[in-house]
């Protein structure tokens, strides 16, 4: 079963994803976050590491598709947003015309979705498009591309959960969409 967990910054999505896999002794924790010389970032990474059981295996890579394909047992992919950032960095997308990088990014997203489609586990991502359209090109690129990537991963997931203020809300479970009013 594949679950996509989404939400805003510091909403509790990673902790919820870890709870979903808490019953598994062996989990591959796929960390896609970049290595930075930044004390705040290091503190975030440390907090994530300290919450994980010692029996979980951590793989740090920006090649999430390949890591998903070779992982045995359940995987926790955390996070799609940092994976996307690494891809955009590698493609020098921030300043290049879209024609120079979009086809390759689309191929990488397709590869990630294909690998996710055959995996078992939980993927964590961010919701970034609920505010105004970002003023700067880099913000627009990231929000647009993450929104499109999230849609693809959600379509390939059995379950989609939105976390708001630490509260998980099931958006879809096994293909049944939530409806505000009962069907007639």
Short characterization:
GTP binds at residues 7-14, 31-33, 60, 78. The chain has 184 residues and is an alpha/beta fold.
Describe this protein's structure.
There is one protein chain. This protein is of the alpha/beta class. It has one domain: 3-Layer(aba) Sandwich (Rossmann fold), CATH 3.40.50. It is built from 6 helices and 8 strands. The protein has an 8-stranded mixed β-sheet with strand order 3-2-4-5-1-6-7-8, with helices on both faces. A hairpin with a 2-residue loop joins strand 7 and strand 8. The longest helix is centred in the middle third of the chain and has 20 residues, at 98-117. The radius of gyration is 16 Å and the shape is globular. The model is unreliable at 178-184 (pLDDT under 50).
Distance between the termini: 30 Å
Average pLDDT, rounded to a whole number, is 90
Which structural category fits the helices and strands?
alpha/beta
According to CATH, what is the topology?
Answer: Rossmann fold
Instruction: Look at the structure and name the CATH superfamily.
Output: P-loop containing nucleotide triphosphate hydrolases
Keywords: ATP-binding, Cobalamin biosynthesis, GTP-binding, Kinase, Nucleotide-binding, Nucleotidyltransferase, Transferase
Protein name: Adenosylcobinamide kinase
GO molecular function: adenosylcobinamide kinase activity; ATP binding; cobinamide phosphate guanylyltransferase activity; GTP binding
Active site: 48
């Amino acid at each position: 079963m594949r679950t996509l967990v989404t939400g805003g910054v510091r909403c509790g999505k990673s902790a919820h994803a870890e709870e979903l896999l808490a019953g598994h002794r062996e989990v591959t924790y796929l960390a896609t976050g970049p290595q930075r010389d930044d004390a705040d970032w290091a503190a975030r990474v440390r907090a994530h590491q300290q919450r994980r059981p010692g029996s979980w295996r951590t793989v740090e890579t920006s090649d999430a598709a390949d890591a998903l394909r070779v992982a045995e047992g359940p995987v926790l992919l955390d996070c799609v947003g940092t994976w996307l950032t690494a891809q955009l960095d590698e493609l020098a997308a921030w300043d290049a015309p879209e024609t120079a990088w979009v086809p390759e990014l689309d191929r990488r997203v397709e590869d990630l979705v294909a690998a996710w489609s055959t995996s078992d586990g939980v993927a964590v991502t961010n919701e970034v498009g609920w505010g105004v359209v970002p003023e700067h090109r880099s913000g627009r690129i990231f929000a647009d591309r993450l929104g499109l990537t999230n849609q693809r991963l959600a379509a390939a997931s059995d379950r989609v959960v939105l976390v708001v203020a630490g509260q998980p809300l099931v958006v879809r479970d096994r293909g049944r969409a939530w409806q505000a009013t009962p069907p007639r």
